[in-house]
Amino acid sequence: MLYRDNPEATRLDFEAWRTLFRSTCGQYTLERAEPDAFAGWVRQLSAFGFSAVDVAWNKNRIDRTQRDIRIDGMDLYGAVFQVGGRSTVSHNGQTVQLAEGDVVLVDKARPVSYVADSEGAHVLCLQFPRRPLISNLGFEPQGASHKRGGTPAGRLLYELALHALKRDEATFSPADSYMQLAVYDLVGALFVPDSWAGSRPSDKLFARIHGIVRDRFADPDFGPRELAADAGISLRYVHKLFAERESSCLEFIYSLRVDHAAHLLNRRSGKAWPLSEIAYASGFRDYTHFARKFRRRFGHSPGSHPGARVQHAGDAPVHGSTENGAS
């Protein structure tokens, strides 16, 4: 069954599969399989700038235990899509049965178990760092939240996940920073807590605050104080709204600025930009601060971002040195 779904996949023996699985997905405790009975593959992908893993396996159980969590310390969420076959996910005190097109949200800081059905399972996991996901959603999603494939947001997100499987290019494209925002919005639509159904009067206000930040984040003078003025509320209340959702106003602003900078770095029309201009156009006044935030988000410097076309000369000054707003 597995290789009918993906005839071009490279079949791995169990030991090779286990080694590759741990190197791409983190520390897991894997039930040993008989060599002649095992079938599976593991592929690491990039999906709109997010890390993704394409995994298939059969006849064995995959566990992430408290010990595994302590070993690698991953602070990620994973949106796990069932691409083929069926599987059972036990997580956060719940057991979820997944069929093709279904998706479950997994918190990698908590134990989880995966069991393939008798014919095997094929899943795709999109991985989201905890803080950027919470900042973009405006709430902290709960592990084991799941949706069937028939919901509108579920269908759209599933189609985007399937697109990631078919992409040949691994580089970050200019459209990916916009697609990331679309993916965040779809994840939010799928996994918004039921308790949000009219229970908090501040939800509409918080959604409006998100809109203000998205409109103004590229202004280097914009920060929490300016956001409060635009929203007509106190600065203290702005911080309270974010804190209630396990988030931070500044970190949300920074996440939009850094993602916008990644988009500018991948522009391929016209001449290359100096890094200092890209930093300023993304809302940063200080290049060192920009580079630090960028490295924290992507794991490498702005100048080495995949596909970047930049000028490195004269990168130090960034339109003044005064620290204002959230820059």
Write up what this structure looks like.
The protein is of the alpha+beta class and 327 residues long. The chain folds into 2 domains: 2-191, Sandwich (Jelly Rolls); 200-311, Homeodomain-like (Arc Repressor Mutant, subunit A). Helices cover 40% and strands 22% of the residues. The chain is built from 12 helices and 11 strands. The strands form 2 sheets. Strands 1, 2, 3, 4, 5, 6, 7, 8 and 9 form a 9-stranded antiparallel beta sheet that branches. A two-stranded parallel sheet has the order 10-11. Helix 4 (130-137) packs across helix 10, helix 5 (152-166) packs antiparallel against helix 6 and helix 8 packs across helix 9. The longest helix has 17 residues, at 249-265. It starts with a helix and ends in a 16-residue tail after the last strand. 39% of the residues are buried.
Oligomer state of the chains in this structure: single chain
Strand content: 15-25%
Structural class: alpha+beta
Task: Give the class-level CATH name of the largest domain.
Answer: Mainly Beta
- What's the CATH architecture name of the largest domain? Sandwich
Indicate the percent of residues in helices.
Answer: 40-55%
CATH topology of the largest domain: Jelly Rolls
Number of spatially distinct domains: 2
Number of helices: 12
Unreliable stretches covering 5 or more consecutive residues: 313-317, 319-324
Radius of gyration of CA atoms, rounded to a whole number:
21 Å
- Tell me the number of strands: 11
CATH homologous superfamily placement of the largest domain: Jelly Rolls
Shape: globular
Query: In angstroms, what separates the terminal alpha carbons?
Result: 53 Å
